[in-house]
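Intended use. Records like the one below are meant for learning the mapping from a protein sequence to its folded structure. Do not use them to infer anything beyond what is encoded.
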Amino acid sequence: MTDEYGLVDRENADAPGDEWEELDVSDTEADRIARRRDREFDEFRKKIKNSERFKVEASVFDDATFAALYKLVQDGYVDALGGPVSTGKEANVYAALGSGGEVAIKVYRINASDFRDMRDYLTGDPRIEELGGDKKRVVLAWTKKEYANLKRAQAAGVRVPDPIAVERNALVMEFLGHDGERAKRLAEVHVENPETAYEVLREYVRRLYDAGLVHGDLSEYNVVVYDGHLVVIDVGQAVTIHHPNAEEFLERDCENVAAFFARQGVDVTGDDLLAYVREHADPREN
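Structure written out for the chain above:
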């Protein structure tokens, strides 16, 4: 690893505005394609389901998920699908080829087992209307929220994967890695200069808070090292500062980050990081 860690220059980032754009979770073109089931879509769907790389995953994809991928291909965001890069309880990430090179596609499962936990992170978000117990609407809102959070974090000068497109429960973004191999998480590397790395991540926590967001699950497992830069990932659960548990989540993020760097020899505590964020940030009244 290098000693630079790539702190984004705030001069090159557009500050997020005070507004919160409403997230639409109504049916998309992918849902309409799935209902229409034209011949080209059926051929696309069969091709994916018969692919060795998708055999297991395809069994849990609904038709509208296949249609979402189909729509992303039609719209030119994806030229070719690759295999899975990582798998989780809520989503799988796949490598793919886009017009500009490698991209990643994060596909959330509509039948995610812990969608109720997702709903807890969505409740109170000013961008989202009441979702009730509709599992599909919860997952679609989560996917669009992650896209919106990436945009807002990027505008605040936080290094995150560049968001490219979102369609239903599929999110296309920058691929952090090379030749189909994902970049390593902070927990998986030897940190050569932990003090500098901590200062960069501390600043990113502050910038998120300044933009009205709290990551909510920040740790060494949700930060990757990509070409010498620290990149914050998995921002789907990030909440606005209006969320009833925002301060609790912020304290937890600070504890997790500080605990990791304390193990690397940095003289820091969660309270230190929390005090820095609160003293130096000026969160907008959004």
